[in-house]
Design a protein that fits this description.
There is one protein chain. Residues 1-20 have low confidence and may be disordered. Helix content is 73%, strand content 0%. With 254 residues, the protein is an all-alpha fold. The chain is built from nine helices and no strands. The longest helix has 46 residues, at 156-201. α4 (49-60) packs antiparallel against α8 (156-201) and α8 (156-201) runs antiparallel to α9. The protein has helices at 3-7, 14-27, 36-44, 49-60, 74-94, 116-119, 123-152, 156-201, 208-252. The protein has one domain (3-9, 18-252).
Length: 254
C-alpha cells in the first residue's frame, strides 16, 4: 500500500480492498482463509438482542422523501470525503518525515544527544504509533458521521441505509478496536526481532550506532506502511457509504 495509491481520488476496487483485508489479517495473525460459516458465526457474536431489535426497527420503518433540497449536492459529498481522506493520509505521512513539525506527534528521531541505549528502547516508537491510531480513529469517525448525515438527506433509500449504518456502528466497532489494539503488540515483536538481529551481528562499537540508525530507518518505513494500511481499512465503512451513493446515482440514470 503506497502513499500514491492512498492519495489517488479513484475509489479502490473490491479486489484491492480484499487484498488489504487479507494483508492485515496476516499481520494480526488471524485466519485469512476464514470460512463463510465461521465468518457468519463470528459476525453474529457481535450483536446482542437489543442490537437485533434496533436493526429490525430500521427495516420496518418507512422512510419518506422530505421534499426539501438536500443541504449537500452529491458531488460535494464525494469531494468532501476525498478531501478529508487525503488530509488524514497526508498528516500520517508527514508525521514520519524527519522535518515534521514539532507541534504534532512525530516519529522519534535518533538525535545526537540520545545514547544508543535510549534509541534502542521500543516504548517511544509504540507511544508514537498509538497516538497516531487515536488521531486517525477520531478523524475517521468524524468523517463517517458527517458522510452518513449527508447521505440520509439524499433519498429514502439512503436514509434507510444511513439509519442501518448508525445501528451497526457500535457493535461492529468493538471487534474492530480489539483488532487494531493488536498492531502495537506486533510492532513490539518486530522491533525486538530487529534489535536482537542487530546484537547478533555484533557490529564494531565504533559503527554500532550508525548500523542501528539504519535499522531504525527500515522500522520507520515498515511502521509507516502499516499505518497507511490501517487508515485504508478504517476508511472502508465510509467508502461503502460513498459507493452506495454512486450505485444509486447509476441506478437512477437508467
Amino acid at each position: 500500500m503506497t502513499q500514491a495509491s492512498l492519495l489517488n481520488p479513484a475509489h479502490p476496487s473490491p479486489s484491492q480492498a480484499s487484498r488489504l483485508v487479507r494483508f492485515l489479517a496476516e499481520l494480526l495473525d488471524a485466519d485469512a482463509q476464514l470460512s463463510h460459516q465461521r465468518f457468519i458465526e463470528r459476525l453474529g457474536q457481535s450483536f446482542d438482542l437489543a442490537d437485533s431489535i434496533r436493526i429490525s426497527a430500521v427495516h420496518e420503518k418507512r422512510f419518506a422523501a422530505t421534499g426539501a433540497e438536500p443541504d449537500a449536492p452529491e458531488d460535494t459529498i464525494k469531494d468532501d470525503y476525498q478531501r478529508a481522506r487525503s488530509a488524514i493520509v497526508n498528516s500520517a505521512v508527514q508525521s514520519f518525515a524527519p522535518e515534521a513539525s514539532a507541534m504534532g506527534t512525530r516519529f522519534p528521531e535518533a538525535r545526537a544527544g540520545k545514547s544508543i541505549e535510549e534509541i534502542m528502547e521500543v516504548e517511544p516508537y509504540l507511544n508514537f504509533y498509538i497516538a497516531q491510531q487515536r488521531n486517525v480513529d477520531f478523524r475517521i469517525r468524524d468523517l463517517h458521521t458527517s458522510t452518513r448525515k449527508a447521505l440520509a438527506e439524499r433519498s429514502p433509500k439512503l436514509a434507510r441505509l444511513a439509519a442501518l449504518d448508525a445501528v451497526l456502528a457500535e457493535p461492529l466497532s468493538v471487534p474492530a478496536r480489539r483488532s487494531f489494539m493488536v498492531v502495537p503488540r506486533l510492532l513490539r515483536q518486530r522491533f525486538t526481532a530487529l534489535r536482537d538481529e542487530h546484537h547478533r551481528a555484533a557490529p564494531d562499537p565504533a559503527n554500532a550506532r550508525q548500523c542501528w540508525e539504519q535499522t531504525l530507518q527500515q522500522f520507520r518505513r515498515e511502521m509507516q506502511g502499516l499505518l497507511l494500511a490501517e487508515i485504508e481499512t478504517r476508511l472502508l465503512p465510509t467508502q461503502g457509504l460513498i459507493d452506495a451513493l454512486d450505485e444509486l446515482e447509476e441506478h437512477d440514470n437508467y
